[in-house]
Structure to design on (1028 residues):
């Protein structure tokens, strides 16, 4: 089995922009992406499966098993259509990250994507009251465009790298001539703790950026509704790490938030 | 070398159902599968080899070496023919699990399999007197059909995932339009300890499900006979883990029961 | 780069038998193979390179670097020509073992090999004064043939598996219709300690088996001459394990003796 | 995604020699290579990307993300044109080292490279006042040629192996009929500490060897300028190792200096 994208519906999109919100630090990107999918009533049109995910199935409350996967949703929008990529997990091997992100970029490139925004959390290691939105781009000329939106590109922040899909999609996108922006909400960065405040700060930037109207008042409520599934996959990730670690303490399992 | 299925006998089966019982928690699935193979005098028709198994050969009592493998057996049955998949081991790498399970599903799909049952143990971490049979399906609509058989699909049980072949075959089978059921016998879950009670509970469900007649009185006796080989492979898994671990304590070896 | 066999000389051999002596427990197989190569003045005709070896070059005393490799030697012999496979190392990954051994078996199969003997050490964990030669075959019908030679196939010895090339070549050879024998000299099994006594016991069996005449009196002397190179590769394996382990203690490196 | 070399400018070079200076012990090779690139105002003509690098992007001071990569520079030179290979990182897996080095050798072989020099540091584990330049070649007949340049090929030095790109390029180059020299500057060998003295000693040999004129007085200054980027990638390597290690202490990440 290779990393495969299964198309559920063939859609033609106008000037589509890709937004990625996969599991990661504080679940910031995933929660923000999930909220947009809910509020915009976006429709799923493709799924991604990979041998670089954990070798297990996820059980829903009603005992129905499903493969780990990433999912693509779309939304028709005046300013340019929107694709959101979210999912249960990221690759568990370094090579897998490159393979999966390349598949994603090739897939959306064929759909006409010329711009992408990746969402993430930035772990500060302390309580954050008013989380900044810290940004990175894949082309210097994009800085001007995005600075107006209150994204912090300042030199004082100590980011040296962006690990995982949020980083690689930015880099690989650049190689496919896509303009790329990564926005990260400041968060404490505790493992397996979802941070609604950081997600909220990302959403405010996204709404302006995409020119969409979204009722922001339901975020906390929606997070509570999402929490069951988030908690399950978080627990799964933790549990599987422990499970896989017997009898040798699983030092081989890599999970990059 | 790629994962390869070597066909020993070309068989045509009517409405075949696949039952998987590979090594795992409490050896529950493997023991139940082995008992059926013995009692139904099933015939081996194919073997699976993989570079994702441990790099070793197994020695039988008479000093005859054999590759680690999985085995396919068949049985002609009025209600629908039966294929049983059992074997010495599972993949030792996450990617290997996906590769092997995909090969299996593609192989049995060509044979006409539309339904599969995977067997496993569910570790409770405590002594279980009357082990329940806990179930999961790959399609919600299957719940009704199986609930009648005393399988517990209740929400109170804490299963979030099914790891390894029992899980992935369920998930991948679903992608090939196969109805899938996983039944897990409750067991203590000690490593390398075979649990006949849990296997017995699985067998009672299987007999009803498959519409077959099997003398259940010989289970304990058969397990004792199987024990030598089971013990050997169990010891092997344990021994190999230790062996491979020198000189660096083998933290890289993964075995998922 | 894939695992590659580079042919240095095209040779036609009559009824060739393959003898494998790669590094392993007590270096028993490697030392016995090396002694035969020296005494029979065998000629190298092929080399094997693999990305599954450690990523390094070996320096000879005169500062000349060479890739890690395995080597094939041949010897014309009345009873049937002889191929000896020896080398610096084995695979460092489980999948690599399968890949390399498959390449070897396919290569010698094309040369007409129908019989193979793999050499190894059997770690007893205690001092051995008169090392037995313990054997395993890949086909029950071979036992009779070899029992006459003083090889111990008795059930009292506790071998359950043969790990690495000595085992896999036996197993894979069987799948290519080759008769296979593995002989293991009993040894203490200390890591990185060469055991001449165990090698000597193997050589006595080999001489009878191959119908060759070899002056056995020079073994200890030859081992001393080989010791420099053996020590170097042994140290290398040990040193590299340490080197690779910084800064994360190298738990990912596997070396199977 | 496979390891890929992206050609930025098609150049025709006369008798080109390849010099490799990738990150490693004491950053000796990388710093020496970087100094030559600066002083000779060399031009970049190709980049190498690989799934065997860490799965992350690097952020420059101005928040611009870039993929991890290696870079090829060229310089027209009377005695023979010069290609320098430097970069952010090396492979994080053993197999990746073989794959990347094979790609490099095949690429420069097509450009006409018949000679290569790899640069490295040799960790002495103690303070070195007058660092020797220790050498290794891939063909015995080269020793005479290089001994005149003050390179130490003496037997008293304890090098048994050269790990990573500096070693493998030497070995693989030999298989492509390239004359290869590795020169290593003696250094303390502290992790993540750049050693200008050892780099200086390498540069003195290189200048003689290549027949070029280079103002050596600016080395310390240039290192200070490079230090920001070197420090960043060093910190990245260190930081990423820590990051990846949560929640399982990342023992699976390999970085070979």
């Amino acid at each position: 089995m290779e990393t495969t994208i299964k198309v559920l519906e063939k859609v033609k999109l106008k000037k589509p922009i890709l937004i990625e919100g996969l599991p990661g630090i504080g679940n910031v990107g995933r929660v923000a992406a999930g909220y947009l999918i809910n509020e915009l009533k976006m429709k799923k049109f493709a799924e991604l499966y990979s041998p670089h995910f954990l070798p297990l199935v996820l059980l829903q409350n009603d005992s129905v098993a499903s493969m780990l996967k990433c999912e693509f949703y779309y939304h028709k929008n005046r300013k340019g259509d929107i694709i959101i990529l979210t999912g249960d997990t990221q690759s568990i091997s370094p090579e897998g990250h490159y393979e999966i992100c390349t598949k994603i970029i090739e897939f959306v490139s064929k759909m006409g994507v010329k711009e992408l925004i990746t969402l993430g959390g930035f772990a500060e290691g302390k309580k954050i009251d008013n989380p900044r939105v810290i940004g990175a781009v894949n082309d210097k000329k994009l800085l001007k465009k995005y600075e107006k939106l209150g994204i912090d590109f300042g030199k004082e922040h100590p980011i040296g790298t962006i690990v995982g899909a949020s980083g690689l999609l930015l880099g690989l996108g650049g190689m496919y001539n896509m303009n790329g922006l990564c926005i990260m909400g400041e968060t404490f960065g505790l493992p397996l703790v979802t941070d609604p405040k950081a997600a909220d700060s990302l959403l405010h930037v996204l709404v302006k950026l995409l020119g969409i109207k979204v009722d922001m008042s339901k975020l906390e409520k929606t997070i509570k509704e999402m929490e069951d599934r988030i908690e399950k996959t978080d627990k799964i990730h933790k549990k599987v790490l422990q499970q896989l670690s017997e009898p040798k303490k699983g030092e081989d399992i890599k999970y990059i938030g």
Chain D has six helices and eleven strands. The first strand of chain D starts at residue 4 and ends at 7. Chain D touches chain C at residues 91, 94-95, 97-99, 101-102, 135-140, 143, 153, 155, 159-164, 167-168, 170-172, 174-175, 180, 182, 191, 238, 241, 245, 249-256 (CB under 8 Å).
